[in-house]
Amino acid sequence: MTNDITTIAVLTIGDELINGEMADTNTAVIAGALGARGYLLRESLTVGDEETDIAEALRNLSGRRDVVIVTGGLGPTADDLTARAAARAFGRPLVLNEEALTMIRDHFRNRGRKMTVGDEKQALLPQEATILSNPEGTAPGFLLRHQRGCLFFLPGVPREMTAMLEASVLPRLLSHSRGTPGQERVLKIFGISEPKIEEILTAASLPDGVRLAFGVDFPLVHAKFRASGETAGALLDRAELEARKVLGDAVVACGRETLAENVVRLFVAAGRTLSLAESCTGGLIAKLLTDVPGASAFFERGAVTYANSAKQEWLGVSDSILRELGAVSEDCALAMARGMRDAAGTDLALAVTGIAGPGGGTEEKPVGTVYLALATPGGVTARRFRFSGTRESVRLMAAHAGLDWLRRHLSALQEGIAQV
To answer: Global pTM?
Structure first.
């Protein structure tokens, strides 16, 4: 490996990625982990389970990049061809690696499982490969050094890949970097469009030496601030302070933290409890919160009251509201939030009802109409939103709008500001 890493590429392998059966999440994870440490991914490529295609991609990428991170094709089945393709690409014999074989045997023995002939195949690796331990699975990874740089080979299973990336790849990159690595700070913004954010930040007084880039992880926009050199940290601190000043409460999270993680952290710190009554989001808000470890400290219950009968029987929404105003109405949202808080006995209750589409809209209540309501010890209030896009987009926007309302309420409590 060279001592001055400047260019990094990712190669993902698998027919399931080419034909759309599975999404390539590994490239995004790798790019995010690299960016957080000051490295930029310069190129990514996906090929199917064809040995000649894999070998050609390996030769091409290694010829123009310092580091290539490869994922996929290391398993025990006949279509796992990455090790053979690597041996072919760089003219090395494929040999039984005793260290890798020992790792595989230990994995099965520790779990009380029997190995098969296919499992042993995972120890056939190119000669002179450096083994990378896989604590999550059977297939060892490996490292090959070739000409100007090196290639890291990792399993395609996201859980295994991520663990090995953190344990085996990133430490090696950092140890072989010359000078102070670049740094990146990411602010996640909700409720403002990407062009408008760019306009606001371009006009702001960001310090010299800070580069600005953008990305979208719908429905959030990521503003990325990058700087290099020994003063990078101080420059990014100043840039973040200025960005937060001009963007205000639209900044919902920072770095790798998600909006849901931010909300969980605020709930735990505030010592408040929460219940949810969801209709059009179908439990999505509850899922986003319970994906975060620690949610059990404050989240008491959630109800998907999709049908009118559920709204009546579980939440006490009156027949007159449903008949005269409809399930998608301010009054219904208010009644849902009030009924859930009364039933659960929680400090806060959030309710959502709306028309996610593609059908069901009217001139008065078009598709994308959503009502959110928040019940607190101080009362209950509702807000109306009009979201656009697909059914999935409307549901995601509604769920994030609900989380953002909770975030703002809890932040106001922290600051001692009364807020319903």
So the answer is: 0.79
